[in-house]
Protein: Lipoprotein-releasing ABC transporter permease subunit
Amino acid sequence: MIAGRYLRSRRKETFISVIAGFSFTGIMLGVATLIIVMAVMNGFRAELLGKILGINGHMLVQPIDSPLTDYEAVATRLEDVPEVISAIPFVEGQGLVSGPSGNLGGLVRGVSETDLRRIPLVSGNVRLGSFDDFDAGAGVAIGTRMAEQLGVTLGDNITLISPRGNITPMGMTPRIKGYPVTAIFEIGMSEYDATFVFMPLSEAQGFFNMDERVTGVEVYVTDPDRVGIMRAAMEDAIDRPAIVSDWRQRNVTFFSALEVERNVMFIILFLIVLVAALNIISGLIMLVKDKGRDIAILRTMGASRGAIMRVFLITGASIGCVGTLAGFVLGLVVCLNIESIRQFVSWLTSTQLFDPTLYFLSKLPAKIDNGETVTVLVMALVLSLLATIYPAWRAARLDPVEALRYE
Structure:
């Protein structure tokens, strides 16, 4: 009751309540900011991981010593390994993609129609056209951003130029060939939507002079984090000289940089909560000085040091607990509506806040991690409780005689 009365503002004590209000606001904003930023960082990692692995596979098998001509048998054996979803042979090469509006460097990947349908990130995001009779036709599938930059749409022709063409007495000549666009997909990662060109496997083998060979076999598994455990079984299943690399080896620099950035952001934002906790200390110390006469009267009426200490512990803890709860609710609401908020702010300021060409993704992602959120809440509550100990201890140590000497 006493703690509640101290928190409520009266005309003479407005300044104390204002400080309590600032402390509450600081805790709320600190907790909300931590939850929002950590959720966005987690969302970035999950989205990028899903899109990078969704199109590049979890493990890559590449031949050594001899060409990979027995790729169908290798893929069949790999798919018999437990936890393997699919094994997809592919031909890959770089080339120049030319259209009416310009030229782009492209990554041409040849896969069969059956295997292309087993890549949900591509087959599930077709915006125009389809993959019907993909193997029988001589068409290609490109991303939406490539289509925009080349100025083509469904049914238009693009020209592919490969530096490795026919060998003539004058040397190797580039290979130039036109292909109709039979499908346009949108993965949602700007880098991939502007780079990848899918064509039938047999056509890619001919275009890149691969004959009956393939570049490698991509393997998709149920749990990407278990690729290290599965490596031995997969190497036994391949049963031929080959190099096996997983997604962690191929993307180690990128994901390490994301993890470092995430940890640094957590430390920086933790300081916001710490500053808010220090505001609680300053506010309570001023409250103790202002309530010195009240404390002295309570002590002379028989209140123990522990009772006085509990009054101020409850006062400070109330600010911290309510501020933490409000911050959690605010952070949750923002995370659940982060994309709508981004679009509204972009419309309000007439600027593009989240440029897909810079951030790879076309939408602002947010993924709330339950364990991480609980850690933030516990940390804020502990800091708030620790911040109340010293002012409460000072209040309990106050000598009633000294406090009332000049009253």
About this structure: The chain has a mean pLDDT of 81. The longest strand covers residues 84-99.
